[in-house]
Amino acid sequence: MGAVYKVEDKRSKNFWAAMKLEDDLYEGGVLKLEVYILQKLKGVKHTVRLYDSGRTSRYCFMVMSLLDKDLLTLKYLAGRPFSEATTLRLAISTLYAIK
């Protein structure tokens, strides 16, 4: 299983990123594949930036751009389902990103 943490660069204050960790022994792990894909998408618009990746004796990790809230959190904060118009805008943005 894995987890995502908000981390700060100790050398340059006020620089925040997301660190994703995954147990290296976890058989269903996909972190290595995610790192590979992000390396291939380097510089592509609408994708997170991969700052670093590696492994320790127990964990695989990657450090990437820190994004805002995820869609599930935004839906929860709205207190109701997304409107049809919002859903369509999200779908269109997603399609442009993967185009």
Q: Regarding quaternary structure, how should these chains be classified?
A: single chain
CATH architecture tag of the largest domain: 2-Layer Sandwich
Lateral strand order in the biggest sheet: 1-2-4-3
Please tell me what the overall shape is.
globular
Low-confidence blocks of residues? none
**Name of the level-1 CATH class of the largest domain:** Alpha Beta
Question: What distance lies between the first and last C-alpha atoms, to the nearest angstrom?
Answer: 31 Å
User: Which whole number gives the mean pLDDT?
Assistant: 89
- In total, the number of domains comes to 2
Tell me the total number of β-strands: 4
Number of helices: 3
Describe the structure.
The chain is an alpha+beta fold and 99 residues long. It folds into two domains: 1-67, Phosphorylase Kinase, domain 1 (2-Layer Sandwich), CATH 3.30.200; 68-99, no CATH class. It has three helices and four strands. The protein has a four-stranded antiparallel sheet, covered by helices on one side. The longest helix is centred in the last third of the chain and has 15 residues, at 84-98. InterPro entries: Kinase-like_dom_sf (IPR011009).
SSE order and pairing:
Layout: E1 2-8, E2 16-23, H1 31-40, E3 50-55, E4 59-65, H2 71-78, H3 84-98
Antiparallel strand pairs: 1-2, 2-4, 3-4
